[in-house]
Amino acid sequence: MDGGLLKFKNGFNYIKTSGLILSAIGIVIIMVTIAIDVFLRNVFNSSISGNYELIQKYLMPLVVFPAMAITYSSGIMPRLDMIVEKFSPKIQYVIHLFVSLIDFLIMVLLIYYTWNYAMQALAANVTFPAGGAMYPLYPVLFIVPIGFVLLAIEILLNMMPATKKS
Predict the structure, then answer these.
(1) CB neighbours of 70 closer than 8 A, spacing ≥ 6?
(2) Lower Cβ count inside 10 Å, N or C end of the chain?
(3) Rounded to the nearest 5°, which phi and psi values hold at 77?
(4) Over the chain, what is the mean pLDDT?
């Protein structure tokens, strides 16, 4: 692997790890918020106003989308290994490229449409009600296409034989 690609992959691994940390922080915030809410509800017969909506609209996307690329690269995602293993290595490589190309094209479509949706929400200043107040929804909508961009880059890196399993 040449120096430029190695530097890019190392930088991208840093970005993927940062996304994983961001997702982990989101999970911890969700757990703490729900635990506090349950405690308040059971002890003081009161709860955090808008808790469910804020977790649903802000924290859940923050948990899922930044970690997609590192999840894909870890091999957790379902694969066609049982079927593909029966073919020769050359056919396996062709199948891998074909499936990866389809994955990449789907990611490009998802990037395009989720980015357009986020831009429309920004232009319309989309908000949602939670706990008696209105909160902007559009900032979190930009996490979705960013997650898909990271996943598309991971798919491209996975398609290159020199970058596989390194």
Answers:
(1) 16, 17, 19, 20
(2) C
(3) -65, 150
(4) 89
Identify the H or E element spanning 149.
helix 143-159
State the pTM of this model: 0.85
Count of structural domains within the chain: 1
Q: Write out the residue range of the structural domain in which residue 27 sits.
A: 3-163
For residue 78, pLDDT beyond 70? no
As given in the structure block, the two tokens for residue 123 are: 């232009």
The total number of residues written for the chain in this structure = 166
- 96-105: long-range contacts, CB 8 A cutoff, minimum separation 24: 96/159, 97/159, 100/155, 100/158, 100/159, 101/159, 103/155, 104/152, 104/155, 104/156, 104/159
